[in-house]
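Support request from a user on the community tier.

User writes: "When I paste my structure tokens into the form, the page sometimes reloads and wipes my input. The last time it worked, I copied everything first. Here is what I submitted, just in case something in the input itself triggers the reload:"
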């Protein structure tokens, strides 16, 4: 969903994802293959656990 005042379509698709683990100053980069991101580029997730998930 777009943020307030944001267009309903992203201007461009991101090409990478930067992840900074909790309590860390270093980040990890990986390719982004899931299309456009709204909310001004913000993605919130909860902790993940090993298991079976979608393949990309």
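"...and here is what came back when it finally went through:"
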């Amino acid at each position: 969903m777009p943020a307030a005042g944001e267009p309903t379509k992203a201007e461009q698709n991101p090409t990478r994802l930067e992840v900074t683990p909790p309590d860390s100053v270093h980040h990890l980069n990986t390719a982004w293959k899931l299309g456009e991101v709204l909310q001004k580029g913000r993605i919130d997730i909860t902790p993940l656990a090993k298991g079976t998930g979608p393949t990309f």
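Agent notes: The reload is a front-end session timeout and is unrelated to the input. The chain has one domain: 1-40. Strands lie at 16-19, 28-31. Escalated to web team.
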